Amino acid sequence: AGGAVWSGGQPDLDGSGADPTTPTTDSRVGAEPGTDAGEIMMYYQPQIAIATGEVVGVEALLRWRHPRRGMVDPEELIRVAEQSAVMRLLTRRVVDDVVEQLAKWSAAGLGLRAALNVSVRDLHTCDIADQIADRLARYGVAPERLQLEITEGALMADPRRVLTTITRLHRIGVGIALDDFGTGYSSLQHLRRLPLAEVKVDRSFVLGMAEDSDDAAIVRSTIELAKALGLRVVAEGVEDERTWRMLHAAGCDAAQGWFYARPMPAEELVAWLARYRPLRPLGGHDEAE
Ligand code: C2E
Ligand code: MG
Ligand code: MG
Ligand code: MG
């Protein structure tokens, strides 16, 4: 976990005025006396094949433990970071951490696939494609092990440049997932134009689908659409068994959510995997409404 401390500078989320673009020589920012910036680290949430219960991969999620505020909401962190050069450093750090982690898992005999999230800004330059290719080569990680989750909002700003970056990553062999599907704009156009491997149904629809028939209808239609286009479909925010059964009945490939596991640090994930037993197979009856 020592390597999971961010070395790229301190996000100025609490108005401390630290220059976020100046990397410190001490790789453990939080260890410096008087500049307790806390820790930036990655958590990993398992993604489970719905039909078999098999763990198919993990999503890497950023966590910042602030010395006074405790865990900071990642969306807040990203929103603030995106307004400055911090985002670039943050993404660099995320890519490094996740690829290094994949190499470690590989060495330990764990053939996990990891998905990481990228921000709006990151896709407007080809840097990220170069950086990912470089890291994969350096750590000897197969590109197929890595997946990138992009949000629809991210695609809007400059679609052509974003498409160029995504196409490069696709050519390298890195899978692309469209995240938070249904919450952005021009979703259907993106499905048609981008070299996607996967669609992720946004948790706002999944969370309510067991109670709300509209949410359920949206989730089912999304699954059907994705399948018709030959894409893998993953649901996020599965919190109970009923939702899991409904997703199974609807033909969803994989899911992640508190019903299976919360996001956790890499060391905990290894222990979780060792304990994990696939849930009992689903019976013959399919859940209707
Ligand atoms: P996301 O990529 O859509 O990630 C899924 C979110 O759903 C995560 O929130 C995860 O913790 C949460 N989640 C998973 N299962 C459940 C569940 O059963 N119930 C509920 N209520 N929530 C569940 P998290 O970790 O707070 O991250 C929020 C967002 O922040 C992410 O949404 C992503 O857009 C962004 N983010 C996180 N890490 C990174 C990162 O490294 N880079 C970038 N650019 N964005 C990141
Ligand atoms: Mg995501
Ligand atoms: Mg999402
Ligand atoms: Mg989100």
TrEMBL record:
- Annotated stretches, region: Disordered: 1-31
EAL domain spans which residues?
20-277
List the residue ranges forming a coiled coil, or say none. none
User: What name does this protein carry?
Assistant: Diguanylate cyclase/phosphodiesterase
